[in-house]
Amino acid sequence: MSQDVEQAFQLAKERYAALGVDVDAAMATLKTIPISLHCWQGDDVIGFEDPDRALSGGIMATGNYPGKARTVAELRRDLDKAYSLIPGEHRLNLHAIYLDSDQKVPRNEIRPEHFASWVDWAKENHHGVDFNPTCFSHPMADDGFTLASEDEGVRQFWVEHCIASREVGAYFGKELGTPAVTNIWIPDGYKDVPVDRFGPRMRLRDSLDIIFKESLDPEHNLDAIECKLFGLGSESYVVGSHEFYLGYATSRQKLLCLDAGHFHPTEVISDKISSVLLYVPELLLHVSRPVRWDSDHVVTLTDELQAIMQQIIRSRALDRIHIGLDFFDASINRIAAWVIGTRNALRALLLALLEPRDMLLQYEHEGNFTGRLALLEELKGMPFGAVWDMYCEQQGVPVGFAFMDEINQYEKAVLSQRRS
Ligand SMILES: C[C@H](O)[C@H](O)[C@@H](O)C(=O)CO
Ligand SMILES: [Mn+2]
């Protein structure tokens, strides 16, 4: 262990202890928190079903950084590299279009066997897996509608895909001994102002009821649904709005997925957590960074990221919240994107775990708002970085900026050899 890291850590430990914070306990808790890394950062949300098909559904990856993964093997290799630079054991969030099959499989016919090699890989590398039906980038979604389509055949196709996806999720959960969160996000909506806002929502509700008709063992699969405010081409109306899914998740007791980029520009998900948790069993978070729109930038250590993690820790809700990432930046090294974003999510969690919760709560309950404000501000200057460095060292991953050396080497040896 480096002497510098050790010395800085000991000093930091004393400073936190003076506030009643047990640094070792905070690090021990952090070790138990998995983050679900989204496979789609590795190849700009293209997948392996039909790599020549462009991304649709009102989402967009911008940039043309060389070296994106073109095969299942390349994506796994890139993921392995990313996980090796992130402290702790983490999950993978997989989309249906990342199936591993020699034949082209219609979306409504995906089966567990198409994901068997992902199970083998996950077992070898101790990853839980989460899953998503892919209701976009497909001819049957080209008019922008899937589960809420007026066309019964189209609806049926996507219902079947979502049912099949739940079964794949349950397969992962059963094989890996940890439930998969299977999250449904659909793009359905209108570019311009619709006349009938009610009909599509009734159809979506009915489609979801059919999809969820069969109850699956929660030890294997947990169902989540993700709302959105607008997408590219669905600026005026999105069927699956926040109110729609909040009502659906509450009435059906499903997991609600809150994506940080799916609300009005100044609206934050951190303040929704404590409200929504009163009414739904569990939450899925898509931690993202919207810049002026749902731009899916790599997560940085923003105030909102810190506020999200504070809410999870302060609410003592770790066992009811699943943390997933959702960004896709094609303008920078894609492995660095995963590593920077995930390390930031973990750093924000550690910051939250290092709060002197009892002291802050006491001030608040006594009405000592001056003390509360002063302490919250002082915490920003605490030597948190020394604790983070020690955590990385203990977990056997690079300390500080050193992770970029490994990424640069990998880019030279592996990514630069890929020609698309
Ligand atoms: C690829 C994901 O499913 C997608 O990003 C979804 O979660 C979303 O946030 C769409 O805006
Ligand atoms: Mn999302």
From TrEMBL:
<feature type="binding site">
    <location>
        <position position="294"/>
    </location>
    <ligand>
        <name>Mn(2+)</name>
    </ligand>
</feature>
<keyword id="KW-0413">Isomerase</keyword>
<comment type="similarity">
    <text>Belongs to the rhamnose isomerase family.</text>
</comment>
<keyword id="KW-0963">Cytoplasm</keyword>
<dbReference type="InterPro" id="IPR050337">
    <property type="entry name" value="L-rhamnose_isomerase"/>
</dbReference>
<comment type="function">
    <text>Catalyzes the interconversion of L-rhamnose and L-rhamnulose.</text>
</comment>
<dbReference type="GO" id="GO:0008740">
    <property type="term" value="F:L-rhamnose isomerase activity"/>
</dbReference>
<keyword id="KW-0479">Metal-binding</keyword>
<dbReference type="GO" id="GO:0019324">
    <property type="term" value="P:L-lyxose metabolic process"/>
</dbReference>
<dbReference type="InterPro" id="IPR036237">
    <property type="entry name" value="Xyl_isomerase-like_sf"/>
</dbReference>
<dbReference type="GO" id="GO:0019301">
    <property type="term" value="P:rhamnose catabolic process"/>
</dbReference>
<dbReference type="Pfam" id="PF06134">
    <property type="entry name" value="RhaA"/>
</dbReference>
<protein>
    <recommendedName>
        <fullName>L-rhamnose isomerase</fullName>
        <ecNumber>5.3.1.14</ecNumber>
    </recommendedName>
</protein>
<comment type="pathway">
    <text>Carbohydrate degradation; L-rhamnose degradation; glycerone phosphate from L-rhamnose: step 1/3.</text>
</comment>
<keyword id="KW-0684">Rhamnose metabolism</keyword>
<dbReference type="GO" id="GO:0005737">
    <property type="term" value="C:cytoplasm"/>
</dbReference>
<feature type="binding site">
    <location>
        <position position="296"/>
    </location>
    <ligand>
        <name>Mn(2+)</name>
    </ligand>
</feature>
<feature type="binding site">
    <location>
        <position position="262"/>
    </location>
    <ligand>
        <name>Mn(2+)</name>
    </ligand>
</feature>
<keyword id="KW-0464">Manganese</keyword>
<dbReference type="InterPro" id="IPR009308">
    <property type="entry name" value="Rhamnose_isomerase"/>
</dbReference>
<dbReference type="GO" id="GO:0030145">
    <property type="term" value="F:manganese ion binding"/>
</dbReference>
